[in-house]
Amino acid sequence: MDAPLASTEVSSSGGSIAQSATADALFKRIALRLIPFLFFCYVLNYIDRVNVSFAHLQFKNDLGLTEAAYGFGVGIFYVGYVLFEVPSSLLLRRIGARKTIARIMVLWGLVSLSMMFVRNPTQFYIARVALGIAEAGFFPGIVYYLTTWFPNRYRARVLSAFVLGIAVAGITGGPVSGWILNNAEGWHALHAWQWLFLLEGVPPVLVGLCALWYLPDSPQTTKWLSAHEKAIVVQELEGFSDSTSHQISHFGAALKNWRVYVCAFGYFTITWAGSILNFWAPSVIREAGVANPWHIGLLSAVPYFIGAIGMLVVSRHSDARNERRLHFASCALVSALGAVLIGATHSSFGPAIAGLALVAIGYLTCTAIFWTIPATFLSGTASAGSIALISSIGQLGSLTAPTAIGSLTALTHEISAGSYLVAFVLMCGAAVIAVAMRNNAAK
């Protein structure tokens, strides 16, 4: 059995260089064990959520979808997602991350696969709602899960490594989806878009089953940490909690706290940037003069690649300064600038790609940094439930944004009006977080 911590205990508020190095090495090992697997799960999650943006280049004619109907179908995904987000996340706290993540991945994979059978707009809407229900709780559940492993000073880097899955999904998913659409038409009498849903729906089912034996529910239950190492993790997390005595630990109290709703609005605005990047990027690239689906897929990877680099740089800077509020607001404004550029020059190839890249930098970085903010005043049941509540309210943006963008695009026959609306929403989010959270412990 390991000796007591004694003089080797690590304090989040001080301690020797050797003690700090011990903690750094431990949390690096934990990250290397957990993050690659969770990262891969999120890549699959995002590919299955946004591959509809590629499929719709072909199936809109087969299903009789207008741009407004497509936007509604994209947005209605979040009806089921929002309704089941909090229950799913609270269930995670009761039954553990391992079973919850496995359940979600298997269900969403099966539903995503079933989208190959849709034949009309109504079936498309039903499948999208079902996909939202299946995926509910995945992202906030993992955010909460990571906060039970890593203290605050590591969280922006850890969350940015996880959110990097969005970028990698865009970098890899775009070319893969484009290749399938360009080459799979007619295989075994199926359309290429049907093969897209089939081939990208199977992997989450398999990986979800792997999660049952790979993921530990908590540091205390893991078999690859010694008792000494478990004690260091617990003390680091408790040390952070003690240094932030204003933390809310009960979900009922969190529901009455104004900061929860300020955060929810901030997250609401982020999702508007995500809607352009995830659901309209292929259409923007096509309007800029690129017709081949394979080439569209390749080019759609460029904004995600640039966005990933920007996110990693800014997240590391945010951790080094222990500053979240102004980093978030600045990156939201970067996304707003990108949306304006898309609206003003969407028919020009270079500016369109540049606009998408700016949207990607702001969107990915805001998403990574944002989740460090609520963790500074929430803990325990309040953290699990409130992270899900913030995500649920915020995802109303993912419900309304595609519908608004799709309707404005159908009305004006171009994406400009929708892009300007996205920019306005993002500027509002930047202002609210910058002003309202200025006295928060997370800065």
From TrEMBL:
Coiled-coil stretches: none
Domain Major facilitator superfamily (MFS) profile: residue ranges: 34-443
InterPro entries recorded: MFS (IPR011701), MFS_dom (IPR020846), MFS_trans_sf (IPR036259)
Keyword field contains Electron transport: no
Keywords: Membrane, Transmembrane, Transmembrane helix, Transport
Primary location class: membrane
GO molecular function: transmembrane transporter activity
Record-annotated membrane-spanning stretches: 30-48, 68-88, 100-118, 124-146, 158-181, 193-215, 260-281, 293-314, 326-346, 352-373, 385-405, 417-437
Keyword Transmembrane among record annotations: yes
GO CC annotations, alphabetized: membrane
UniProt protein name: MFS transporter, ACS family, phthalate transporter
